[in-house]
Design brief:
By secondary structure, this protein is mainly α. Helix 14 packs antiparallel against helix 15 and helix 14 packs antiparallel against helix 17.
């Protein structure tokens, strides 16, 4: 919730400085920049040290970033460079904490319940990401400083939640038995993913779909210059994908996807691209919000399939490193995708950029039946059989 609230405020403030779409893309680029450098070491650390402590440390850093954004806002928020610097710091926090955070659920839940458990986790996550942007927009309209002050408080509470977690003792013994760190150990996640073509195909497909098809980074531009809504309307637009994702997550908790998962993945990626085309062409606030909600709904099915596949296929001793590699792919699609969206909008305009990206995603989904035949033919999660080692 804190991350979503602050994203709304940062997006609105950054676009208001120069009214340039490229500036929105720079925020995404700076958020992504630390990941290629830190992801693999962070994944290795997550496989050697207590994961709850790593999570807590990352939340402390995110809280410091929120405090610094509060200070920037109190000083007038008239310069772009502080937002770029703090976007980089926020990216460092995400790079350090995400592998540990995402490696925790599979070791706490029996394998036969994992798909439903990950969907349940997504429900909690989507409740926060649904309410966070809307709350952030309302608070920003009242007073911008409130967004960052409350966000910092929520991150402090997150530190307490992380510290309160208890990891199984078997995992502690596993950490203690790990060999001394080395380059081969750090690169273990890359080797494992390369040995599982289906896993590599699923992650790669998601990367390119969101990299070129996503439009979240351009929402401040759409809100101000195309749909002509204020901060509250912008918050609603920012929340719309999470509303759709929440509905999908609730469905998946009761009826997890367990058949034809390969074809389902390709189908929902195509639908994601179609929803982006509708959003890009829309001039009506309600239609735009519904299109974004649909994009979040189908994307949740994609995320659930990919997350469950990774969790089922990966042994706990490698989970942090594998998830670190996956995190680079995901963040490349999100943060680097934000830069791509901003740069494309600056070159050809926001509407052509969004529509072209959605059309490319549809074409990618269709082509994937030939590009990733093994992935398209997967029926159950049990069919994923990575090579040993």
């Amino acid at each position: 919730m804190a991350a979503q609230m602050t994203a709304v405020a940062v997006g609105w403030q950054v676009y208001s400085i120069h009214h340039r779409a490229f500036d929105l893309g720079l925020i995404g680029l700076l958020e992504f920049a630390p990941l290629p450098l830190l992801a693999l070491p962070a994944g290795h650390v997550a496989d050697r040290l207590p994961r709850r402590r790593i999570m807590g440390a990352a939340f402390v850093l995110e809280g410091a970033v929120a405090g610094a954004l509060l200070a920037v806002t109190l000083s007038g928020a008239r310069e772009l460079w502080p937002f770029l610097l703090l976007a980089f710091a926020g990216g460092v926090a995400v790079a350090l904490g995400t592998p540990a955070a995402r490696a925790l659920p599979p070791m706490l839940v029996p394998p036969e319940l994992l798909a439903g458990a990950l969907a349940t986790r997504s429900v909690a996550f989507q409740i926060a990401t649904t309410s966070g942007p809307a709350l952030g927009g309302v608070l920003f309209a009242i007073r911008p400083e409130l967004v960052y002050a409350i966000g910092a408080g929520l991150l402090l509470a997150s530190v307490g939640c992380a510290v309160a977690l208890r990891e199984p003792r078997s995992v502690e013994r596993l950490h203690a038995a790990e060999p001394p760190p080395g380059l081969a150990s750090v690169l273990g996640g890359i080797r494992f993913i390369r040995s599982a073509p289906i896993l590599l195909g699923a992650i790669s497909l998601d990367l390119f779909a969101v990299l070129f098809g996503g439009a979240v980074a351009l929402l401040p531009l759409y809100a101000q210059s195309i749909l002509h809504v204020g901060p509250t309307g912008f918050g609603v637009l920012r929340s719309a994908p999470s509303v759709g994702a929440l509905l999908a997550a609730l469905w998946l908790t009761r009826r997890p996807t367990d058949r034809r998962i390969g074809r389902t993945l390709l189908l929902v990626i195509g639908l994601f691209g179609a929803s982006m085309v509708v959003f890009g062409l829309s001039r009506w606030f309600a239609v735009s919000a519904v299109a974004l909600a649909v994009s979040g709904l189908v994307d949740m099915f994609s995320v659930n399939i990919r997350s469950t596949t990774v969790a089922v296929a990966t042994p706990d001793a490698l989970r942090g490193r594998v998830l670190a590699v996956e995190m680079v792919f995901i963040s490349a699609s999100n943060e680097l995708g934000a830069f791509e969206s901003g740069a494309a909008a600056a070159l050809v305009g926001a509407v052509p950029a969004v529509v072209a990206g959605g059309a490319f995603t549809i074409a990618l989904a269709i082509a994937s039946f030939r590009l990733f035949p093994q992935l398209a033919s997967v029926d159950r999660f049990e069919d994923v059989r990575p090579a040993a080692g």
